[in-house]
Amino acid sequence: MPPTHLPPRHPSDTTTDSTALRLPAEDVSVPRARHALDRWLRERGASPDLREQAALVISELATNAVKHTDSSWIVCAATSSPYGGVQVEVHDDDSGSRSPCRRTPTAEKEGGRGLHIVEALAESWGATASAVTRGNVVWARLQD
Questions:
Q1: Histidine kinase/HSP90-like ATPase domain: which residues (predicted)?
Q2: Fewest beta carbons less than 10 Å away: which of 52, 57, 66, 79?
Q3: Residue 58's closest CA among 28, 88, 92, 26?
Q4: How far apart are CA 94 and CA 46, in angstroms?
Q5: Domain boundaries, the chain
């Protein structure tokens, strides 16, 4: 079970290097978020492996926010830190404030694997009420 609060920053994490992008809660926003995050990480010298993992995680989290909330917009954000990792976040504007839940994937259904993928790639992940929107933020911390 994921934690229900944002994790504390790493003790050596004094950076404020972050980015955020507000997007409509539409399918077309998922690749926009993925490409913006990849460009931001590339500009910071992130490894290809970290960039690939972060792109997959932001895609899964943004897809979940678009498909499973009543949001009209989402905020995709990332914060890098000197210990070589990145925290990726997707804030939804779901007035129902439903928490994300892992589904049991089946061979017949295409969906239901997103949070399992996030859990497999992330050092840690979780969800809590967003300080940016009226909904939730789902976050994942990735280590390079």
A1: 23-141
A2: 52
A3: 88
A4: 32
A5: 18-143
DSSP-derived 3-state class of residue 30: helix
Q: Which CATH architecture has domain 18-143?
A: 2-Layer Sandwich (3.30)
d(CA 112, CA 91): 20
Q: What is the mean pLDDT of the chain?
A: 83
3-state secondary structure 75-117: EEEEEECCCCEEEEEEECCCCCCCCCCCCCCCCCCCCCCHHHH
For 33, 54, 66, 112, 144, the CA distances from 92, given in Å and listed in that order, are 14, 18, 8, 19, 26
The DSSP 8-state label assigned to residue 83 in this structure reads T
pLDDT at 48 over 90: yes
For 75-129, the pLDDT digits (tens) are 999 999 777 899 999 999 987 756 665 555 555 555 555 788 899 999 999 999 9
Cα(56)–Cα(40) distance, rounded to whole angstroms? 15
Read off the tokens for 84. Answer: 């070589």
Predicted TM-score of the model (pTM): 0.80
